[in-house]
TetR family transcriptional regulator
Amino acid sequence: MDSLRPFHGPWPGMSMWRARPRRSCAIMCTGSTAPLFDVNDAGQGDQVTRIPAADRRSALVRAALRVVADRGVAQATTRAIVAEAGMSLASFHYAFQSRDELMVELIRYVVAEEATAVLPEPSSTESQGQDDIQSLRQILRDGLQRYADHMSRDPLREKAMLELTQYALRSPELRHLAVAQYERYHALAAEALDTAARRSGSVWLHPVGEVARLLVSLTDGLTIAWLVDRNDTATATLLDFAADSVAALGRPA
Amino acid sequence: MDSLRPFHGPWPGMSMWRARPRRSCAIMCTGSTAPLFDVNDAGQGDQVTRIPAADRRSALVRAALRVVADRGVAQATTRAIVAEAGMSLASFHYAFQSRDELMVELIRYVVAEEATAVLPEPSSTESQGQDDIQSLRQILRDGLQRYADHMSRDPLREKAMLELTQYALRSPELRHLAVAQYERYHALAAEALDTAARRSGSVWLHPVGEVARLLVSLTDGLTIAWLVDRNDTATATLLDFAADSVAALGRPA
């Protein structure tokens, strides 16, 4: 699954990415969350280049996320995004070939953020190997709680991701983005499940990819329900059920 | 949950519906699937009234579903919908007060269709009461298979429903539509689960509403994954896992 590594490798199917490797680390290498204020090109073109391309791309992606989250995918025009970023259209075209290329990077960016939030933290006790299925269940429940906390902190981001999937599915040219998004979700889930099994001294009774699909489906489903009714109590119960469901697919090694 | 009954009662929060009860059965009382070709109003206004209001509403809803499914919610303008239905704008405004009112009815219509497809059929053997948990699991697996078959037969409809939820969540005025849609999903799932428990002589170990939320989340999640990659094999495995997960929340009475 090396081709699905989030930050350092090419995005599946995005040949334009491979053609411009110097930009492939743009977003994740930029820690700043402050908007970068660009100047209008008219008469001041020389200043455009003062902002490194990577920073400009990063600022545009974060602006795009705010626009998509606040107003929806359909309203996230190039013009709206550059206005949000305080940049000129010329600066946009210096950084991205098209709005769709920006949307690709936006999906990368948010999936990477989710990965950081949800994946189990490296643990110094990993090699000690706790050994019962309850422990596997608890590790899963903790991971699901981290996901739910991440979702609660920024509901608009989760809504934006669901909209982006629908947007990509709408067009034959962009369908591969949704495919790549879910391949990445499934790969991340498989990674988390492998870690959970290792830490609890468990094995999966089915190929981990199959278990991963269940985990991703559960999180997608609980996200939609929560976005609709914001019922935290029902969601907590659902997280319990989800942990039980996934843990039932493993056993002590 | 009487206020959530699909065809014969008012839709929660839709006071405009209650004000016009003679139209509240329009869609479901019209079995025809053929488009109704209306005439242009100009100079032929007398012909407009020849199509009963209920038929006109039904034709517009089915046209709206085709437009949303083919082109997306954003493209489903009143103009596009009347063009698809072969009607005039005047005819539209005779049938609906606004595009949003039409969207309300569209959600009603598709949820009702799903109910018909997914709910267990009335069974003459129901009172005989099979008595083991395997039977509960099989009933659930069969219901999930019916849902998956329904989804495979018309993927665009499922995509349209997910888009409509996102569309409703996008606007404070329409949010209640998404809430009503999911209340209805949860009520239908609870109904199906009650039936499954009764037929298998089982009881649920948790309030049926909680189990229903798990079932709806699982079907939402598996639908998104399938819409993205159309992986029927992975979906079949997921249906097995989903049936196991839900059945684990019941036991023989």
User: Anything to note?
Assistant: The mean pLDDT of chain A is 77. The interface with chain B takes residues 72, 74, 159, 162-163, 165-166, 169-170, 178-179, 181-183, 206, 210, 213-214, 216-222, 224-225, 227-229, 234, 237-238, 241-242, 244-245, 248-249 of chain A (CB under 8 Å). The radius of gyration of chain A is 20 Å.
